[in-house]
Amino acid sequence: MNKNVLILCTGNSCRSIIAEALINKYLDGVTAYSSGVAPSGRVNPNAKKVLEANDAWDDAYHSKTLDTLEHIDFDLVVTVCGHAQETCPTFPKPVPTIHVGFEDPDGKTYEAFEATYSEIKTTLLPEVEAKLKEQTVKSNNMQKNVFKTNEGVKINFTGVVEKQQIVKMVENCATGQCECMSDETKKKITNMQVEGKDGDVELKLSGDIAKEEIEAALAKSKVLNP
């Protein structure tokens, strides 16, 4: 399954553009995007130059705001500057976020951009790859067993699972932020209750709902399948 990664910085003109390009060039199965919390609206000429010199430039790369990417479900957000880390926006769905900071080469010589390119390639790419693999391992080691009950449906989550993870999934459903479950199924649920502890969590759903409906929803959940 392809993973979507967002690189976030302030101006979206140097570091995040370079990181976006390098991830797309070197990490298989990963699509990177970038944006700025206060985008400059332009790509620094030296950032473009260093990417062109390394056969990593694409004319699609440009400085932009996050709202232009709101249709994309991100599997990971990476902040590459302190300001972006401090002002990282809240996403409708929980998204793992890491910070890998780099000095801003803006206003410096072309050699500074070459150094930034090299540093991002050797530092950020392994961090992103490791985090995505960690998420995959966690997802693969979570066991989900669905049972039909007299009251509705019960799901037992065992293995690598945090109770707060299931609570967050329930909160998303209750506030309409969940897209994994159809509106028809949501209307059937009269109550959702989370019990247990990390490693052994139970979710009870009350209502006239079928086991198959819930199994289909769990397979689509971004919280459970990051």
Description:
There is one protein chain. It is built from seven helices and eight strands. It is of the alpha/beta class. It starts with a strand and ends in a 6-residue tail after the last helix. The model has no long low-confidence stretch (mean pLDDT 88). It folds into two domains: 3-139, Response regulator (Rossmann fold, 3-Layer(aba) Sandwich); 141-220, Gyrase A, domain 2 (2-Layer Sandwich), CATH 3.30.1360. Strands 2-1-3-4 form a four-stranded parallel sheet. Strands 5-6-8-7 form a four-stranded antiparallel sheet. Strand 3, helix 3 (82-86) and strand 4 form a beta-alpha-beta unit. The chain has helices spanning 15-26, 45-53, 82-86, 110-140, 163-174, 183-188, 211-220; strands spanning 3-9, 30-36, 76-79, 97-99, 142-148, 152-159, 189-197, 200-207. Helix 1 (15-26) packs across helix 4 (110-140) and helix 2 (45-53) crosses helix 4 (110-140).
A few lines on this structure:
The chain has 226 residues and is an alpha/beta fold. 38% of the residues lie in helices and 23% in strands.
Features:
226 residues; Rossmann fold; 7 helices; 8 strands
CATH superfamily of the largest domain: Response regulator
User: What is the helix content?
Assistant: 25-40%
List the helices and strands in order. EHEHEHEHEEHHEEH
CATH class of the largest domain: Alpha Beta
The radius of gyration computed from the alpha-carbon positions, rounded to a whole number of angstroms, is 21 Å
- The CATH architecture designation of the largest domain is 3-Layer(aba) Sandwich
Contiguous low-pLDDT stretches (5 residues minimum) are none
According to CATH, the fold-level topology of the largest domain is Rossmann fold
Which outline best applies? elongated
Taking strands numbered 1, 2, ... along the chain, how are they ordered across the largest sheet?
2-1-3-4
Rounded mean pLDDT score = 88
N/C terminus separation: 10 Å
Count of DSSP H/I helices: 7
Provide the number of structural domains. Answer: 2
Major sheet description: 4 strands, parallel
Total beta-strand segments? 8
Q: Structural class given helices, strands, pairing? A: alpha/beta
Q: Which strand-content bin applies to the residues?
A: 15-25%
